């Protein structure tokens, strides 16, 4: 590194650029599924939300969010589920104000009382909804800290009143603001979900979304097997009317929900999304690795005599190879550290650009469009070890051929070339 400064810094810069690009894409994907408050239970959360029915032998398809009645049939009392919450299938934009105050546009999420036991919100003031309030569909609301300050100028406002779409609501609690990347938990205001609201005459279609919190050790497959059998029972009833209910692999994991690519009449395809990501990672690693391999061989040409002398004094091929790998690993780790730091800062500052390009976030509000992960969501131990793993891969690919050729240098030939 001291004797070939230019080549060293070129190699470090190339490694840094490679790790920067790989980790920028990787962290953007990870930020959508990282388990942090209020979705600390993400690895155990599964979601059932859609209903797809078609007439047997015909092309007449109907699909939409599932009704509360059928959501209960499919997801209630499943073995291995610790808690279940029924919420509105989508968040609505609404107008909120205090009496005599300015109107504010906010994203409203109708939820039930169990919602607050699955997601770990931090309450600044007040409390979550009670079961009696949910059953009576009371006009109660929970505000986020940011909305409370917009409306009242402070965040200790439990017990006061707000007007939502011209209807008065009692504020029972205030929670910390939620990052828009937590799409299931995100909203500006939470009201009580009306499970008796009918959107269509058909009993299968409605506005429900089931949130399942699985017990420790229970897998998605365990839940899917039970839900599929319930679909079969419902199908036996609909077959009498010449109709068929299509099962699309519900409930879905957080990764499937956040990566999108599905609707009420088709299943998520996480495997294809992952394969595309793997191809991107491979390209971003292989291209720099080929260039770094060429630079490593160029550096070794200036050290032929050194290697020849070492071989003449009994150095084994294995020791030569390990030395080359070790030296290259130091350069790779230095470049990897620089690349990781810059990738964290870049994604933190320009994350909305990444999400806008991929179209992965549902643009239900401007906040969601401009969603930005926190530094804690990006600089995780998992991301650190993934970056370290990419450094080792890059080192192996770029150093294998040069190290192998260096180990095969004949001492007499190497010393003769130096004269």
Descriptive report:
The protein has 419 residues and is α+β, with helices and mostly antiparallel strands. It contains 14 helices and 14 strands. Helix 8 crosses helix 13. The chain starts with a helix and ends with a helix. The relative contact order is 0.18. About 2% of the residues have low confidence.
Helix-strand makeup class: alpha+beta
Order of helices and strands: HEEEHEEEHEHEHEEEEHEEHHHHHHHH
The chain-level mean pLDDT equals: 83
Distance between the termini: 24 Å
**Helical segment tally?**
14
Give the helix level as a range of percent: 40-55%
What does the radius of gyration come to?
Answer: 29 Å
In the sheet with the most strands, the strands line up as 5-6-11-8-10-9
Largest sheet: 6 strands, mixed, barrel
How are the SSEs placed, and which strands pair?
Blueprint: H1 5-30, E1 45-48, E2 50-55, E3 61-65, H2 68-75, E4 81-88, E5 92-97, E6 104-111, H3 115-118, E7 123-126, H4 131-135, E8 140-144, H5 145-152, E9 161-164, E10 167-175, E11 189-192, E12 208-214, H6 220-238, E13 243-245, E14 252-253, H7 254-259, H8 270-301, H9 304-312, H10 317-358, H11 366-369, H12 375-378, H13 381-407, H14 411-417
Parallel strand pairs: 6-11, 8-10
Antiparallel strand pairs: 1-12, 1-14, 2-3, 2-13, 4-12, 5-6, 5-9, 7-10, 8-11, 9-10
Helix pairs in contact: 1-8, 1-10, 1-13, 8-13, 9-14, 10-13
């Amino acid at each position: 590194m001291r004797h070939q400064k230019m080549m060293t810094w070129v190699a470090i810069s190339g490694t840094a650029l490679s790790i920067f690009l790989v980790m920028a894409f990787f962290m953007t994907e990870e930020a959508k599924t990282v388990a942090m408050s209020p979705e600390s239970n993400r690895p155990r959360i599964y979601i059932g939300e859609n209903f797809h029915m078609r007439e047997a032998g015909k092309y007449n398809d109907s699909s939409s969010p599932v009704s509360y009645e059928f959501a209960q049939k499919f997801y209630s009392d499943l073995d291995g589920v610790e808690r279940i919450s029924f919420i509105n299938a989508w968040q609505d934009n609404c107008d909120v104000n205090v009496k005599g105050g300015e109107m504010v546009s906010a994203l409203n999420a109708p939820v039930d009382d169990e919602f607050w036991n699955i997601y770990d919100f931090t309450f600044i003031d007040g409390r979550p909804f009670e079961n009696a309030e949910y059953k009576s569909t009371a006009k109660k609301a929970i505000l986020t800290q940011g909305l409370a300050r917009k409306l009242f100028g402070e965040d200790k406002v439990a017990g006061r009143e707000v007007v939502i779409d011209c209807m008065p609501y009692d504020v029972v609690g205030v929670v910390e603001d939620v990052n828009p990347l937590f799409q299931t938990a995100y909203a500006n205001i939470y009201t009580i979900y009306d499970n008796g609201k009918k959107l269509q005459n058909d009993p299968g279609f409605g506005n429900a979304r089931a949130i399942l919190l699985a017990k420790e050790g229970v897998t998605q497959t365990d839940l899917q097997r039970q839900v599929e059998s319930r679909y079969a029972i419902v199908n036996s009833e609909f077959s009498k009317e010449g109709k068929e209910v299509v099962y699309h692999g519900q409930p879905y994991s957080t990764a499937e929900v956040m990566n999108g690519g599905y609707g009420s009449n088709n299943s998520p395809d996480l495997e294809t999304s992952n394969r595309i990501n793997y191809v991107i990672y491979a390209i971003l690693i292989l291209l720099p690795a080929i260039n770094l391999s060429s630079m490593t061989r160029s550096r070794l040409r200036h050290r032929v005599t050194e290697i020849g002398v070492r071989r003449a004094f009994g150095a084994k091929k294995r020791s030569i190879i390990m030395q080359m790998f070790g030296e290259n690993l130091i350069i790779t780790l230095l470049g990897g550290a620089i690349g990781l730091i810059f990738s964290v800062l870049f994604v933190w500052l320009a994350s909305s650009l990444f999400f806008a390009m991929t179209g992965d976030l549902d643009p239900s509000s401007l906040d969601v469009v401009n969603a930005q992960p926190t530094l804690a969501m990006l600089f995780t131990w998992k991301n650190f070890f993934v970056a370290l793993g990419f450094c080792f891969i890059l080192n192996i690919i770029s150093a294998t051929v040069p190290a192998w050729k260096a180990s095969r240098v004949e001492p007499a030939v190497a010393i003769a070339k130096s004269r």
